[in-house]
Design goal:
This protein is α/β, with parallel strands linked by helices. 30% of the residues lie in helices and 27% in strands. It contains five helices and twelve strands. The longest helix is centred in the N-terminal third of the chain and has 13 residues, at 15-27. It is globular and about 35 Å long. The mean pLDDT is 98.
């Protein structure tokens, strides 16, 4: 059975970017775990709550087939977080699905894995992606090898479907 880990901010994660892809994956037999800087309740921007099963520092690449960085204003806590940057790099280097939606693409850019890769991000993160060497496209959804990026909440459903397809 395939497994994905969603890296989600403790506060102000974007509800649609967490719940829609998670539902798509779970409805198709993918086990989804949620990791954050704390365990327990996480708070979405629109009032939704999620449950963190594990700490970011305890995520092991060998336990999962995909890593998904969830967006929202709170995602900025991961932009320079050593554990988050290492996980992005390690999942990418292991050839596993490495995905980000909305502003969380900045974490992938800061990890160095977007150099020369087509990628999208919420418009606020465009300069960070370019600075990180990405070929910013501005598309709702971008897939380049094992990297999947999307620009925001309107792309959440397509983003989830792309992750599912990549895991098939």
């Amino acid at each position: 059975m395939k497994k994905a880990v969603f890296i989600t901010a403790p506060d102000i994660f974007r509800d649609e970017e967490y719940f829609e892809p998670k539902k798509i994956l779970e409805d198709n037999g993918i086990t989804v775990k949620t990791a954050s800087l704390k365990t327990g309740r996480l708070n979405g921007k629109l009032g939704g709550t999620a449950e963190s099963n594990m700490l970011l520092k305890d995520v092991k690449v060998s336990d999962f087939d995909a890593i998904v960085f969830v967006g929202g204003a709170g995602a900025s806590v991961f932009f320079d977080n050593a554990d988050a940057l290492k996980l992005a790099k390690d999942f990418f280097n292991a050839g596993k699905v490495t995905a980000s939606i909305c502003i969380s693409g900045v974490t992938l850019a800061n990890s160095g894995i977007l150099k020369g890769k087509r990628a999208s991000v919420y418009p606020d993160g465009k300069e960070d992606l370019i600075k990180g060497g990405a070929l910013y496209t501005g598309q709702h959804l971008e897939i380049d090898g094992n990297i999947i990026t999307a620009d925001g909440p309107d792309a959440a459903s397509d983003f989830g479907s792309a992750i599912l397809k990549a895991l098939a």
